[in-house]
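Dear Dr. H.,

I hope your travels went smoothly. While you were away I took the liberty of generating a structure for the chain from your last submission, since the lab meeting agenda had it listed for discussion. I wanted you to have the full record in hand beforehand rather than looking at slides cold. The sequence, exactly as received, is reproduced here:
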Amino acid sequence: MIITPMTLSVLAAGLIVTAGAASPQSTYTLTIRMKDAVPARPDDLQCTALKLDPEESYIIKVDPHASKRTAHHMMVYGCKDIPNDKPVWDCYLGESHESENSVCRGGEREILFAWAMDAPAKSLPEGVGIRVSGATDIKYMVVQIHYASLFPDGVTDNSGVTLTMTNNRPPMQAGYLVLANVGIIPPKQEAVNKDRNLRGPQEGSGLLCIYIYISVVMAC
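The corresponding predicted structure, in token form, is as follows:
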């Protein structure tokens, strides 16, 4: 077997918080689940979406409903629009924003949550929320699940998330800053450096936490 260069997909993202005006807080929940999804191939990506109410709201907690036995990882994205109205669609190779297999249509996807390896629920600190809908470009929430393996005949999946939301503006807003994405590992290298995003958070913002996800695709 001859090893050729590998593609290293690295998602290193920092959760940034920015101060703002505060409002009293009352909460509600939204649940987004796959609708009897079935992977079409090994290492498949499937998406489902939920349209948000037009009123500005904030995510303050995310409860995952998934198992590492079924899902390799799960992402929650914010989108301005979605490529179709199917309950579940194949978003395996949708690089173009106009593709029927894209995650979002008409704009970049915004990371709202990332999950893997049976990670627990994620609550943002008191007084922090991720802003969606309203004047933002996040009008839909899309759950994307990476299925590592094909299912046995007759098996479907309903993994997803429950979001705890509020319509009242918290004192601080959170968002993701992607620090690094895709790189190449040349053969026979003991170490490879990957440049990070050198643009730091704006003044008045702080780094809450960092998530790192690595996926290696090897050509042989």
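Two observations you may find useful: The radius of gyration is 18 Å. Residues 132 and 138 are 5 Å apart (CA to CA).

With kind regards,
E. W.
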